[in-house]
Design a protein that fits this description.
Blueprint (H helix, E strand, L loop, with lengths): L2 H11 L6 E17 L2 E19 L2 E7 L5 H15 L13 E4 L12 H16 L4 E19 L4 E19 L2 E11 L10 H16 L6 E7 L1 H13 L4 H5 L2 H6 L13 E3 L22 E5 L2 E2 L6 H7 L7 E2 L8 E2 L3 E4 L6 H6 L3 E14 L2 E13 L2 E6 L3 E5 H7 E4 L4 E3 L3 E4 L2 E5 L1 E4 L2 E9 L2
Helix pairs in contact: 1-2, 3-4
Length: 456
């Protein structure tokens, strides 16, 4: 550990009349490369740093961010003044044992050790793979990697140095024929291992081929269908439609959500198990300690169809009388930590994907995703592609469709879970102006009866 920094922070936290104080300091290095078509549009490598103080006093939270470690004790005093100005009812924090530790991340191939020239050369190859497919009219390729060292210290005696690595890649192709335009894409990521971004030439070409194939694909007629969701789309569904409702700050701040999200309430069949946890190793949402110094966990949200848990900060855990889960996260020193997901997924079941498809006489196989929106328990998602299921077999390709409905009705209609859990690491999560936060989501193939599909 950096003894000088530790001494500076420890001294700054001493001698204050406060219920609680925490201090974070970040050091960041990142690379971004972006192509528009065949043209290199952006390439940069940046370093940054900064920190923040969050203080609890007089029933209020105060927050100060900074980009210099000078006069650190004065910054702590400023956060305390802000807290007392806010005031309010007494705030209780769930107890957490203080810890002093350094967490170092090891990866197979560290992106910071790869030159910009080599990264660009690899992306050049992916761009050319996309453009080797006739019918492509435009494309976009975006790459980013980041290294962060975060120091967390608290007035309770914690001092944690923690490293985090992150890599992400997006390949997107657009095909045009006359006035018809279709697109296909894939998002990939890893917890800092550059080797997972290599050898994707065939995947880049397949993205372009799928965009061209979609030009000829007919639209689906709108209505209710039995649908089988492939793992990427199913993972996005459980993250967006259910995961956010499991964030405890959403629940305790909203009386209607308190009535809906009651622990012990049944939401699905015994085959449905939903987990969130940063203690699941090797994923983009993984870490050892959250941004309040709470150890990471692996928490069941739904177990055998029953709501058994939710995601907490220390404050929400105390308010709701539940254990902290290590889900308080801040995207950078400009923000205080808030309750966020980490790695959210549906656990695998007993059936194979082929078995849950074989039982469908007339339905749809839907996969990939473009985006979506949720409003309380109502959701709408855009699948990247769809295919007809006829007599248990995946048949003709269809154009992208919208899936919409009520989350809880949909969970009740989720009648089969396959055994092929796969994690999607290509996305980022947004909440409270903090985006994109590295997360992972995943699922096996799942089957939903009576799913409302928007089409022609």
């Amino acid at each position: 550990m950096n003894d000088n920094l530790r001494d500076l922070i420890t001294d700054a936290l001493k001698g204050h009349d406060a219920q609680y104080i925490e201090l974070r300091v970040d050091e960041n290095e990142s690379t971004h490369i972006r192509y528009r078509g065949r043209e290199l549009e952006e390439v940069n490598r940046t370093t940054s740093g900064g920190g923040c103080v969050r203080a609890l006093a007089g029933g209020g939270w105060g927050f100060v961010s900074f980009n210099s470690l000078e006069n650190l004790k004065e910054k702590v005093k400023a956060a305390l003044r802000n807290a007392r100005l806010v005031g309010g009812e007494p705030v209780t924090l769930a107890p957490v044992a203080p810890v002093v530790i350094k967490v170092h991340r090891e990866v197979k191939k560290d992106p910071s050790k790869i030159s910009l020239q080599d990264k660009k050369a690899l992306l050049d190859q992916y761009v050319e793979e996309i453009w080797s497919v006739p019918g492509i009219s435009s494309s976009s390729v975006g790459y980013g990697d980041a290294y962060r060292k975060r120091v967390f210290a608290s007035s309770e005696g914690s001092y944690i140095e923690q490293e985090k690595l992150d890599v992400i890649l997006r390949l997107n192709a657009i095909a045009r024929e006359g006035s018809e335009v279709q697109q296909a894409g894939v998002s990939l990521g890893s917890a800092g291992d550059f080797s997972e971004m290599e050898g994707l030439h065939q995947q880049a070409k397949q993205v372009a081929q799928r965009a061209v194939e979609l030009l000829k694909a007919p639209q689906v007629k709108g209505g209710e269908y039995t649908v089988v969701l492939e793992p990427v789309l199913a993972g996005v569904f459980i993250h967006e439609a259910f995961g956010h409702l499991s964030e405890a700050d959403h629940v305790y701040e909203d009386e209607r959500m308190k009535e809906i999200m009651v622990l012990g309430k049944r939401f699905g069949g015994k085959h449905l198990n939903v987990v969130d946890g940063a203690a699941v190793p090797g994923l983009r949402g993984s870490y050892a300690y959250d941004d309040e110094g709470v150890p990471s966990t692996r928490s069941y949200l739904i177990k055998e169809g029953v709501l058994v848990g939710r995601l907490h900060s220390r404050e929400t855990a105390a308010k709701m009388g539940e254990p902290p889960t290590g889900n308080a996260r801040a995207i950078g020193p400009q923000f205080p930590p808030i309750v966020r997901m980490t790695n959210t997924y549906i656990e695998g079941g007993d059936a194979t994907a082929e078995e849950i498809i074989a039982d469908v006489k007339d339905g749809l196989y839907v996969g990939n995703w473009y985006g979506g929106m949720t409003s309380m328990e109502q959701f709408t998602f855009s699948a990247g592609e769809a295919s007809v299921i006829r007599n248990g077999r995946i048949e003709e390709l269809r154009r992208p469709v919208l899936l919409t409905g009520n989350l809880f009705t949909t969970l009740e209609s989720l009648d089969a879970v396959a055994n092929d859990l796969s994690m999607n690491q290509g996305g980022g999560c947004g909440k409270g102006g903090q985006s994109p936060l590295p997360v992972s989501n995943g699922s096996p193939h799942i089957r939903i009866q009576r799913c409302l599909i928007g089409g022609s």
